[in-house]
Every structure is written in structure tokens, then in C-alpha cells.
Specification:
The chain has four domains: 234 residues, Acetylcholine Binding Protein, Chain: A, CATH 2.70.170.10; 136 residues, Methane Monooxygenase Hydroxylase, Chain G, domain 1, CATH 1.20.58; 53 residues; 44 residues, no CATH class. 38% of the residues lie in helices and 22% in strands. The chain contains 13 helices and 20 strands. The longest helix has 45 residues. The protein is flat. It comes from Reticulomyxa filosa.
Length: 622
């Protein structure tokens, strides 16, 4: 090896610079059009490249270059861009929608990842670098039609590329100790997705409502390395939504909102903050179709009901009632038409405040009341003169006009309020609309133990073991979020207290049942020892010990009555029982339980006597 080769070998694998993210400034290309947010103090979400190092290494081609790499162990910044290709199948009944989209991910490679890529290329492999790549979890997806990393011929899924315009303009001059994208290696991948997402619709203002179609993506990178999402810095337009092939005839896409940030895992088992991407498509329903096909026709039905006032006289009473009832049944048909277009929600539509109803339209309910009132007026028309009937005609006509004008004004106000939702972010949507439903958590430490006296069995009020200890069950406890309104908080607390009372009563019931079963087993065991064929001092001593622990008069009577008939019919066994009773009595003389055992022996003798006189003849006849 020559002196020149030695100098080249010594010059490779040398760390030249180390640049931390906190020391970097936002590139001029990435500055906002206004001064807002240009001085971002949040280190994690600055539009910079992250912690980097500059190395002099030998590249894949054998040349010696100075390249920038991501610093190992630091927060990895993944720069994304996206394209929404199609939105379709917005289902009001199932509360779902379908979307096809692409996500492009770019992240700066570490030195180890770059060298691994070079080795794979030399080995004629596809060049994939899988030491680290974003593991994405789509939280509200219920069905995945397509979700794969695109495979590029001869390059694999994860390509190694160099960009000349990443976070800089091509004409910018970069200092030697500052990051230069033209002297760096990026890993680029493309994720193709087509999924069906769940989206709870807020239909209080139907058909004048506005909705958010959300796609929530969590980053779940395995290991100690954290990933952070940022927009791709190659072009200011890092995302697009193309609706040319979308099927959303009943909706208009007004705007969209993309949110990149972190989620706090306060109430979960994780101790880190995960990065999320939330894409919200802000859509507005085309209300004219529902207005002319439903509400206008219901208004016509109510208007036609006024023709009943033309049927005057007692002879036309039947025709008048028949007309009104027919119109009521027609309105009911339109109610089913509305129900077919809405899910079974627990509130009235076309209104702002929630009611405990089953998806009815407030406008149609008032129309029902109007028609029913008209039928009631028709039933008492015989007791009125024609002048009063004309007064009622003007009353119903005035009410019909006034309440339709009021509903038109109310619909305009609802539309204006719904349009405010087009500007809400995720936190405002959760706190203002969804009310943050409570979550259930299981804690094995939150339990109350009750120990039975003179036993080793421990019964818990919050844990049930099932039959013969087969199950170990824990009760979930609700955690009320801060964003929930006071009415829902009080309702959840009331339900939780009610469940706790029921659970405590059930636990005490099983506790008492277990104690009764234990006492019954001990009493049965004592009887078996007392009337055993083999009498010994040890058995008598055990009988004395068990008899002192339990009070089993009632159990003894049951066991005496349930003894086998043939055993009680034997005279020899009866005499042996009397002898054993006498010996046991002498052994337990002076004990506190003599009277109890004496009663037991008397019951036993009476039972055997009854068996001898009544059941022995039956046995002999057999």
C-alpha cells in the first residue's frame, strides 16, 4: 500500500460536524408568508431536518464523499406528502365512508442504514432498508381494501435518493457546517391505501348539516427511537385532494384540514407521546334535494288538510274525518322515508339540543300535531255553527303559515351554525361536538377484600372467581374526560354509583352463599363422622372439634330426613347408632355442645324408629 492509499484510508470514516436541531434555523424556503410561527420554540415540530452528523465515508461507488446523516438515538423526523385520489360511499346509515389515498414518506438515513443499503446493493438484493420505517396505525379504519408499501423494480420498497431542493432553493449557498440536502441520503417510500373509515355523523341539523370525514393515523415505531411527522420540504404544496373520480353527489367539499402533532397517553399504558396525523375533509350537505322531496311535500299535505273545512254539515262529517286520516297516513309514509336516510340516533334532527327520541324529524312531528288537531276539530264540528268553523279555518291557516316561516328562519340559523364546524380542529371537535365519551379501564389494585373468620378463604368484592375458581374477573371503571359537559358527567356518575351498589350487593350475596355452603359441608362432614361404621377416639375428637365450630341444627334435620331408607330400616344399624351416640355423649360430657348433640341423637333415634315401624314392612313386602 502506497503512502497515498494510507492517507485515503485514514481520511475515511471521520466525523466532521455534529449539528443539533435546536441550533438550526428554519430555512428561508420554509418561512411562512407572515411572521406567525416562524420562530417556533417547539423543538419537535420545527421545520428543520433534526439532529444530524457530517461524515467523510466511502460511498457505494467507491468514492470518498462528505455526507450528512441522521444522528443515531435522536428523534427521527419523517417528512410526508399525500394525495387523496377518491372519496366515495358516504353512508348515513352505517356512518362510514371510503377513501383512496397515497402517503409519501421521506427520512434522512443514518450512517448504518446507508452502509446496509450499500451492502444489499452489492449483494444484488433489492436494496430495502428496514432498520427503521414508520409503522402506521389507522385508528378509525374498519376495513382495509388496500394498504401496502409500493414495490419499485430493482429498488425495492425503500429507495435511497438524493434531493437537490429539500428545504432549500437550488440557488441558495449553504455553509460547510450547515446541512445541505445535496450532500445527504434520504430514504423514500410510498404507501398506497384504500380503506373504509368509521365516522360518527352529527345529524342534529339534518339536512342542513356539515360534517367532518376524518382519517386518524398513529405512528407506532417499534423500539426506543421516536418518529415525528412533518410536511415534506421539497415543495410548499405537499398535499392534494383530487375529487375528479369521487362519488359524493349529496355533498360539497368546502375545505380540508391536516393536523400533525402528538397525542397524550395519560390514560393508557404507554409512557410516551405518539405522533399522529389527522386529515379532516370538511363537507357540506346539499339540502335542496331533501327540502323539495320531503319537507315541501309534507307542507303540501298540511295545506291540503285545510280543504276539510269545505265539507260543511253533519252529513259530510264522515268524509271530513276520512280525508284528514288519509293525510295523516300519508305523512307517516314520509316519516319512514326520512328514517331510511338516517341512522338510529338518539336525538331529534333539524334541531340543536338533544332529546331522548329515536331519530324523528321535528318538522314532521309538528306536522303530525297539526293534522291531529285538525281531526279533533272535525269531531266536534257538529256542536259548532258555521261561523265558528270559519274562525278555526283562519286559525289553522295562520298557524300553517307562521310555523313554516319560523322553520325556514330556523333552518338558515342552523346552516350558519353548522358552517362554523368547517373551521374546527380536532380538539375543538372533540370538546364541542363529540363530548369525549368516557373510557373504561381495569385496575387490579382497586378491590376490597373480606376475610371469613377461622378460614383461609378470601372473598373479594371486585373480583369474582367463577365456579370452582375457574374465572378471574375484573370490573371496568369509567374515567370521565375533562371535555365532557356537566349533564353527561352527572349522568355517568349516577350510572357508575348505581352499578357499584349493584355489584356490592351481588358480591355480598356470593359471600354469604359461600359461607353457608362451607358451614353446610362442615355439618355434613360431622354427621358422616358421627355415624361412621368405624368408631375411634380420633374421629370422636374430630367430631367434637367440628361441633364446637358450627351451629348446624337445621342442617342436621335435613341430613337425617335425607338418609337412605334401607340403612334406616336395619335394626342392627339402629342399635349401633344408639351405642355410638352413648359413647359420644360420654366423651363429650362437660362440653357446651352436649345439649345440642343430645337433641341430635334424639332426632336420630326418632328417625330410625319411624323408619323401623313404617318402612321395614314395605321392604319385607318387596
Amino acid at each position: 500500500m502506497t503512502e497515498e492509499d494510507n492517507g485515503i484510508a485514514e481520511a475515511t470514516d471521520v466525523l466532521l460536524y455534529s449539528l443539533l436541531d435546536k441550533d438550526q434555523k428554519i430555512p428561508s424556503k420554509c418561512l411562512a408568508t407572515s411572521d406567525f410561527d416562524n420562530d417556533d420554540s417547539v423543538r419537535t415540530y420545527k421545520l428543520t431536518i433534526g439532529d444530524v452528523e457530517k461524515w467523510r465515508i466511502k460511498t457505494c461507488t467507491g468514492a470518498i464523499e462528505e455526507l450528512w446523516f441522521s444522528k443515531p438515538g435522536s428523534i427521527r423526523k419523517v417528512f410526508i406528502s399525500f394525495k387523496v385520489k377518491r372519496v366515495s360511499e358516504i353512508d348515513n346509515i352505517r356512518e362510514t365512508y371510503r377513501m383512496r389515498f397515497h402517503i409519501y414518506c421521506n427520512w434522512l438515513a443514518t450512517k448504518h442504514e446507508y452502509l446496509s443499503h450499500c451492502i444489499a446493493r452489492k449483494a444484488a438484493e433489492n436494496g430495502d432498508t428496514e432498520q427503521l420505517y414508520p409503522r402506521l396505525e389507522f385508528r378509525n379504519a374498519i376495513e382495509e381494501q388496500l394498504c401496502t408499501w409500493q414495490e419499485f423494480p430493482e429498488l425495492g420498497r425503500f429507495r435511497m435518493q438524493t434531493f437537490s431542493d429539500f428545504a432549500k432553493n437550488k440557488t441558495d449557498k449553504i455553509a460547510e457546517d450547515q446541512f445541505d440536502c445535496s450532500h445527504a441520503r434520504f430514504i423514500r417510500a410510498k404507501l398506497e391505501c384504500e380503506m373504509t373509515f368509521a365516522e360518527e355523523l352529527e345529524l342534529q341539523a339534518f339536512p342542513f348539516d356539515c360534517q367532518d370525514l376524518s382519517c386518524i393515523i398513529y405512528e407506532r415505531t417499534i423500539g426506543d427511537t421516536r418518529c415525528v411527522f412533518l410536511p415534506e420540504l421539497r415543495s410548499p404544496n405537499f398535499g392534494s385532494i383530487d375529487l375528479r373520480y369521487s362519488v359524493i353527489d349529496q355533498w360539497d367539499l368546502e375545505t380540508a384540514m391536516l393536523e400533525i402533532g402528538g397525542v397524550d397517553c395519560t390514560h393508557t399504558d404507554c409512557d410516551i407521546t405518539h405522533t399522529i396525523i389527522v386529515l379532516r375533509l370538511k363537507i357540506k350537505r346539499r339540502w335542496k334535494v331533501f327540502f323539495w322531496n320531503i319537507q315541501f311535500l309534507v307542507a303540501c299535505i298540511c295545506g291540503l288538510a285545510l280543504t276539510a273545512f269545505s265539507l260543511v254539515g253533519p252529513d259530510n262529517l264522515g268524509n271530513r274525518l276520512n280525508l284528514v286520516i288519509t293525510l295523516i297516513l300519508t305523512a307517516v309514509t314520509f316519516t319512514f322515508a326520512v328514517l331510511e336516510k338516517l341512522p338510529n340516533v338518539a336525538y331529534l334532527t333539524y334541531m340543536k339540543t338533544k332529546q331522548i327520541m329515536n331519530g324523528q324529524d321535528k318538522y314532521i312531528l309538528i306536522s303530525y300535531g297539526y293534522l291531529v288537531a285538525l281531526m279533533v276539530e272535525s269531531t266536534v264540528v257538529n256542536s259548532m255553527n258555521d261561523k265558528i268553523d270559519i274562525y278555526f279555518f283562519y286559525v289553522f291557516l295562520s298557524f300553517l303559515i307562521i310555523y313554516h316561516i319560523a322553520f325556514l328562519w330556523y333552518a338558515k340559523q342552523l346552516r350558519s351554525q353548522e358552517e362554523q364546524k368547517l373551521l374546527l380542529n380536532s380538539e375543538e371537535v372533540e370538546h364541542g361536538i363529540n363530548h369525549l365519551r368516557p373510557s373504561l379501564y381495569f385496575d387490579y389494585t382497586e378491590r376490597e377484600q373480606v376475610q371469613a373468620k377461622r378460614t383461609k378463604h378470601v372473598y373479594t368484592l371486585s373480583i369474582g372467581k367463577g365456579k370452582n375458581g375457574r374465572l378471574l374477573a375484573f370490573n371496568g371503571r369509567m374515567v370521565i374526560p375533562n371535555g365532557m359537559n356537566n349533564d353527561l358527567k352527572n349522568q355517568v356518575k349516577h350510572n357508575q354509583e348505581k352499578l357499584e351498589r349493584l355489584h356490592k350487593a351481588r358480591s355480598m350475596y356470593w359471600l354469604n352463599t359461600a359461607a353457608e355452603q362451607k358451614e353446610q359441608k362442615q355439618a355434613t362432614k360431622s354427621l358422616q363422622m358421627l355415624f361412621s361404621n368405624k368408631t375411634s377416639p380420633f374421629i370422636q375428637k374430630k367430631t367434637n372439634q367440628i361441633a364446637q365450630e358450627c351451629t348446624f341444627q337445621h342442617e342436621c334435620v335435613k341430613n337425617v330426613q335425607n338418609m337412605n331408607y334401607r340403612q334406616r330400616a336395619s335394626a342392627r344399624r339402629r342399635k349401633r347408632g344408639v351405642e355410638e351416640a352413648k359413647s359420644t355423649y360420654l366423651y363429650l360430657k362437660g362440653s357446651k355442645n352436649v345439649i345440642r348433640l343430645y337433641k341430635l341423637f334424639i332426632l336420630n333415634i326418632l328417625g330410625n324408629s319411624i323408619n323401623f315401624f313404617f318402612f321395614c314392612p314395605l321392604e319385607l313386602l318387596r
